[in-house]
Amino acid sequence: MHTPLVFIDGDQGTTGLQIHARLQGRNDLRLLTLPEAERKHSQRRAEAINSADIAILCLPDEAARDAVASITTLNVQVIDASSAHRTTPGWVYGLPELDERQAQRIAQARRVSNPGCYPTGAIALLRPLVNAGLLPADYPLSIHAISGYSGGGRAAVERHEQANPGEVPTLQLYGLELAHKHVPEIQQHAGLSARPVFMPGYGAYRQGIVLSIPLQLRLLPAGISAEHLQACLELHYQGARHVQVMPLHQDGPAKALDPEALNDSNDLRLALYANPAHGQVLLTAVFDNLGKGASGAAVQNLDLMLAARHQA
Question: Could you give the CA distance from residue 144 to residue 285 in angstroms, rounded to a whole number?
Fold first, then answer.
């Protein structure tokens, strides 16, 4: 039986290194990586990607587009971890939990775009509610998220971990021009007709995301309560291996959310906090930006492709 050859293009970046580590020791695939001297050699990279059964691109956006353009072998499957193709027609969005058929679409696709870290949490919370008609597609959404500094890539990791105390801020918000590249991805795949406000930030810790989206019940369809929102998410993610929906909290003090709670896993934890007296609900997600937000998700999609190849 043919053992699939998997090529990781860009395996020295933050995401690529994590994917490589997660695949070590597996005997159901063969890993192809290039020597350091060949990693920036366009012809050698093109030869590698065309020799692979599945290629995982961990590259800047423009380099990812160039890598895809270099493919001449029809049967090469691609998982692109960059943001280059997340809203591109013809590419399958790599969030298996998007709906009941998405995992099968990913398994059979030739081109899969791995979701962005922040969009993973936002879309997981919003898409089921929009589809069910509980959240209007034109709701004036505001999304706030804090990630560990590894979300800024290898350069950000080195900047934080080589700095002296006080040289890097404890917390920094960015995307203040309200034009973050993740917004079109969130809007498209959450099924929104109105552009959400997205406010990201980096904390002084390595990895992990806490994301929150406030809702006013008075702006939802008449009669919709926190219980309806909770039931919708529970139904949507029933049986989902990597998504946990926590019990609804709307009575008394609540524990603080720890962005590092699911580090080194591929899990996503969703929770709703409600105050019925004020008519307000907070949608929340906690996950590892290097796990379900990047490398873990890529490996999850890879496993779907490998399973389909095994069954073929």
Answer: 11
- Domain residue ranges in the chain: 5-114+294-311, 117-287
What are the two backbone dihedrals, phi and then psi, of residue 19, each rounded to the nearest 5 degrees?
A: -60, -45
Residue 117 is a catalytic residue: yes
Three-state SS string over 232-261 comes to HHHHHCCCCCCEEECCCECCCCCCCCCCCC
Four-way CATH pick for 117-287: 3.40.50.150, 3.30.360.10, 3.40.309.10, 1.20.1260.10: 3.30.360.10
Tokens (6 digits) for 50: 């065309």
* pLDDT tens, residue by residue, 237-287: 999 999 999 999 998 899 999 999 999 999 999 999 999 999 999 999 999
Indicate the class that CATH gives domain 5-114+294-311: alpha beta
Catalytically annotated residue among 8, 79, 84, 117? 117
pTM equals 0.95
Cα separations (Å) of 92 from 38, 80, 202?
A: 30, 10, 29
- Three-class DSSP category at 87: coil
Residue 102 CA to its chain's centroid (Å): 15
